[in-house]
């Protein structure tokens, strides 16, 4: 039961400090999703300025608030474990919610939260693809589970955050009619994400590139 696909498929390398993960192949429900075009990853030479923080919420002073419709639920497990990686995991969860927020409505421009947690050319291209998806009348609905996060160091003092996503109760919805395209659960509902994150001048971790694998067996849960 999949919603429309979230990311632009990119190639990254994890050799000599670079990260390489291939985008997953198709599935029987591919027609229910939007597949953005592939791009080639490149780490930013500078970190883009971070927009002013949105009003705080329970996460503490300066934490973002997200304008998610009532029919969308984001559930994170393991993203608050241990003080060592607490900051980057928290910002990774904010980045995931920023994507949901942008996909939840038919936006004509990037949201402040997306601009806050995504940076560089890849962030801009990703935003364009999600906005274009909304123009086609497709938004998202349902429940999104994120789990099994793993943090690793990569080149230039950056970090990679790899985690799983369960989309079995996540669907595409027509923004005008409200009709939900309910699909049958399958292995393709399980996604393996990798975010490459760099620290901004304000101390937040921003995504400068990402990749996902559809049908990730290692993410499958009962």
From TrEMBL:
N-terminal signal peptide: 1-24
Keyword tags: Signal
Biased composition (Low complexity): 35-58
Region annotated Disordered, chain positions: 28-67
Superkingdom of this protein's organism: Bacteria
Name of protein: Lipoprotein
Species name: Planotetraspora mira
Organism phylogeny: Bacteria, Bacillati, Actinomycetota, Actinomycetes, Streptosporangiales
